[in-house]
Amino acid sequence: MGMQSGINTLPEKNTLYLTIIGILSVAVPVLVAVLLFLPQTGKLGDLDVSFIPHLNAVLNSATAVSLLCGLYFIKRKQIAYHRTSMLSAVGLSSLFLVFYVIYHYQAPHTKFGGEGFIKTFYFLLLITHIILAAIIVPLVLLSIYFAMSEQIAKHKSLVKWTYPIWLYVAVSGVMVYLMISPYYSSL
User: Fold this and answer.
1) CB-based contacts of 89, cutoff 8 Å, min separation 6
2) What is the mean pLDDT of each run of 10 residues along the chain (187 residues)?
3) Which among 36, 70, 145, 152 is most buried, taking Cβ atoms within 10 Å?
4) Total domain count for the chain?
């Protein structure tokens, strides 16, 4: 626990970590927003990215399972397993983000082809997913920071918001994929 105690006792390290969290909290949503407005296709040559939506659905599903395991373990006060589950969720979400950026940098936008109520439901799900995905970045990073710096009261207080939002983002990401996957042109 030497590293964790070191985080607590050095104010300049706290400032550094919080600055990094702030930068990532702005940079990640801005990068994703830019990808939505840039014309896509072929920026990476002939790189075939058609498998990435499938992979990202798996990564989102695994993130949701890791989050559920993390909750299970913390309820049983199995801290080491909880930490492993939550760090797995962070790793899986990070991989998702990397592949999401690659896919949307290379592939054309896919238009949802459903009509009527299903189209309204899809766009409501998509919009809430996108908004909450942007909001979750600083919440997750701060939750990790509070846990690693042994600020457990702050960690517990924050994860009451972080956890359900993160779980919603992971599950809704899979739902969005399942709804739009019939419309991928090259899959």
Assistant:
1) 63, 66, 67, 70, 166, 170
2) 46 74 82 69 74 96 98 97 97 94 83 92 95 93 93 95 98 96 69
3) 70
4) 1
